[in-house]
Amino acid sequence: DTVMAIASASKWLYAGYVAERRGGTPTADDRSLLNFTSGWTGFDICLPGQTVAQCQSYDGLVFHNGGYDASHVGRFNYSGGHMQKHALLMGLGDHANAALGREIGGVLGIDMSYTQPQLAGGVATSATQYGRYLQRLTAGRLQMAQLLQADAVCTNPATCPGAVYSP
Asked: Three-state DSSP class for 151?
């Protein structure tokens, strides 16, 4: 029941949220942004108190977000920038941490919050809540279940010539 930051495991929750909101039928933009092939790869960090839109457009002295690289379109590049841009398309731009947690957690039926308005890495939740989401997913009770393996992308630059970056 301990709530903790789940970092990149946040991606599953955001993707599940989008699948629910889209009724299991993602758009072409959803596909490229959620499989990290959109070209929106410039992303460093969100600052405390920012909204999704403020984080997406942040351009500070050291950190820069919102960068687009046309040469990366159609090529996998592991970056939170794709999901940050996508959240704007989903109408979440004005949402800060509390509103994001209520919106996404409410749609998924779990208790969660955001420690920063970063869709790809800002969630805090418990193992119980995350487990509830995964159990519903594997039981086929969430729209994302039917999308697993759809639009698969090769992600490892060592074995996939088209991939740009993967940790």
From this structure: coil
CA atoms of 15 and 29, how far apart (whole Å): 13
Query: Crossing angle for the helix pair 97-108 and 10-21, nearest 10 degrees?
Result: 60
Please tell me the distance from the alpha carbon of residue 163 to that of residue 91, in angstroms, as a whole number: 29
Q: How many other CB atoms sit within 10 Å of the CB of residue 62?
A: 6
pTM (predicted TM-score): 0.95
Evaluate whether 46 touches 117 at the Cβ level (below 8 Å): yes
Digit-coded pLDDT (tens) for 8-47: 999 999 999 999 999 999 999 999 999 999 999 999 999 9
How many whole angstroms separate alpha carbon 147 and alpha carbon 31?
A: 10
Contacts 24+ apart (CB under 8 A), 133-137: 133/12, 133/13, 133/16, 133/108, 133/109, 134/12, 136/109, 137/12, 137/16
Question: Measured between alpha carbons, how far is 35 from 165 in angstroms, rounded to an integer?
Answer: 13
Calpha distance 13→76 (Å, rounded): 20
